[in-house]
Amino acid sequence: xxxxxxxxxxxxxxxxxKPADAWIDPAKxxxxxxxxxxxxxxxxGGHEKVWATPETLAIMGLxxxxxxxxxxxxxxxxxxxxxxxxxxxxxHVLGSAQILMExxxxxxxxxxxxxxxxxxxxxxxxxxxCDIFITEATFGLPVFKHPNTAVEIEKLLTAKSxxxxxxxxxxxxxxxxxxxxxxxxxxxxxMDPIYLHGALEKMCHLYQELGFDxxxxxxVMDTEKExxxxxxxxxxxxxxxxxxxxxxxxxxTAMASGWMRVRQRARQRNVELPLIVSDHADWDELTRTIKxxxxxxxxxxxxxxxxxxxxxxxxxxxxxxxxxxxREEEDD
Length: 332
Known about the structure:
The protein is an alpha/beta fold. It contains seven helices and 19 strands. Helices cover 23% and strands 25% of the residues. A hairpin with a 2-residue loop joins strand 1 and strand 2. The longest helix has 14 residues. 47% of the residues are buried. GO terms for molecular function: exonuclease activity; ligase activity.
């Protein structure tokens, strides 16, 4: 165990801030929870007190039925047990935040999940200098280099134009990815209706309530099969090959995920049109972020921890793997 930040303890089920008696993204109910974002591997119900961005609290209310919490806007600070805490944009999904903690002259940033690419549905990542940087490593191998998002969206639109009698069925995670794909399509000038699996509707409507214009979105359930020929349909990845998809007109199965870089994963899911669109930083972005933050020490969690720790050591940077568990919910 390093002597740095002795007041913070990594545990398999969360990061404990000792003087504040609070946890970051705890996997089980606690008295005080600081939540980075609304994905189920970081947020859950049952906490006595929750601090999160207003958007994350709204998402938690929708997904987990929580109806209370202390909203924290980006840049705002508060104090618990002598620890000064502030939230800063992580660029991962709507409401996602890095948590900066300052105590006895030491600055620690817990990123949760983050990305460096632009996203029309959430603010960009903010570089926050610190002494200890706690980073994810979902795509922490050099092979993971995400292509330009606009190029992947153009692949989707090209496939649609080339197949006017079929639909394009895109697997996209319900929180963040689905809304981003819609936003990227609108950014590319695509203004036709976009059809949604029922599991995506409530979250998309919440984004609209929170001020994001997703254009015209329609439920698949209320639409005749023939109307959906030549259209784009979004569904959770689990629905791509189940009975639900049989009601669609000759779907071309697509999947929007950073894992589509791995051909075997695309084949396993019977994906005809892999779209490499990720809500996590790729290898180059992970390493660039560490350089820009310039911490004295980097703590690496949930992902390819060993490779990123090794890169830090090769670059004369102190690092350690936290070996936390339970961070596999997102089908990114």
